[in-house]
Amino acid sequence: MKLFYRKYGSGPPLIILHGLYGSSDNWISIAKSISDRFTVFLPDQRNHGNSPHNPVHDYKSMTDDLLELVNDLKLQKFFLAGHSMGGKTAVNFALTWPERLYGLLVADISPLLQEGSNSMTFNQHSEILDSILSLDLSGIKSRKEVESFLKTRIVSEATRGFIMKDLKRESDNLFSWKLNARALRENLHRIMEGIEPGNMELRGVTGFPVYFLKGEFSEYLPEKDYVQIKRIFPAAEFTTIPRSGHWVHSDNPEEVKKSLLKFLDSQ
After folding, report:
1. What pTM did the predictor assign?
2. pLDDT of residue 264
3. Is the sign of the CA dihedral 12, 106, 190, 206 positive or negative?
4. C or N: which end of the chain has fewer Cβ atoms within 10 Å?
């Protein structure tokens, strides 16, 4: 699949992958702030932003999409960063094509399967996607109407904000969604997938620095996973981003930028 992407700056290549409900827009300010030192590519993953929609949505397909993009860009090696769902895509790429990476940064997501919390997280995302799917946009005349509808169904203001960024007005003055909520809902169990803890086949991926960023108030990267993660990536380092929840790049962009530059300067 040919992904839409944005490009900023010049220098060593860095690709940043957004998370669920997100798009390349989420990282523009950070990309611009480091564009004097790096060439930053911001793709929209499938079923998000301006990239194509497809009924298939899993980490193999997203990894294949990324491989196709870097080959089209003729990037032999590059830095790779990803947030949430994008972080899992980045990990999957690193496990499949480690020789293509100078380094890996994963923002606020554990690559491990979360047995205890999966049902709760799955239900939360189900409610969000069901809310989007239940809204008939054909009679909507303003963004305010959509926001009012979502406010009664999606408690998190931050989540509603990201969802609202996916709303666009078409040339006929009607509204539509950039994200493919139907495909995301039908593949939600695949989005929740992770590496089985103790998987003996995934030990000792080395050769490049690995950084994990954890939001101070987030539970998406539990500290109990650190030992298992280091068995997969022995060089992994963990940094807590203060005053931030799951959307670390939005809650504390300056600290994320500092961590990103430290990671990039490690080579």
Report:
1. 0.95
2. 82
3. positive
4. C
User: From the first residue on, what is the mean pLDDT of each consecutive set of 10 residues in the chain (267 residues)?
Assistant: 97 96 95 95 98 98 98 97 98 96 97 75 92 93 94 88 92 92 97 83 83 96 94 95 94 94 80
User: How many CB atoms are closer than 10 A to CB 9?
Assistant: 18
**pLDDT score for 251:** 94
pLDDT of residue 202: 66
Q: Are 39 and 13 in contact (CB under 8 A)?
A: yes
| pLDDT reported for residue 201 | 66
Q: How far apart are CA 194 and CA 74, in angstroms?
A: 29
Helices (runs of H) and strands (runs of E) counted in the chain = 11, 9
User: What pLDDT does 119 receive?
Assistant: 75
Tell which CATH architecture fits domain 5-115+194-264. 3-Layer(aba) Sandwich (3.40)
Name every residue whose Cβ is closer than 8 Å to that of residue 65 and which is 6 or more positions away in sequence.
1, 3, 43, 45, 46
If one counts every other C-beta atom within 10 angstroms of the C-beta of residue 7, the result is: 15
Q: Is the dihedral of CA 28, 29, 32, 38 positive or negative?
A: negative
- The C-alpha torsion from 88 through 236 and 34 to 13, rounded to 10°, is -70
Element (H or E) spanning 62, and its range?
helix 59-72
Q: Residue 118: what pLDDT?
A: 60
Q: How far is CA 151 from each of CA 13, 132, 158, 160, 163, rounded to the nearest angstrom?
A: 39, 11, 11, 7, 11
Q: How do the domains of the chain map onto residue ranges?
A: 5-115+194-264, 118-190
Distance, C-alpha 87 to centroid of its chain = 5
* Structure-block tokens of residue 250: 């939005």
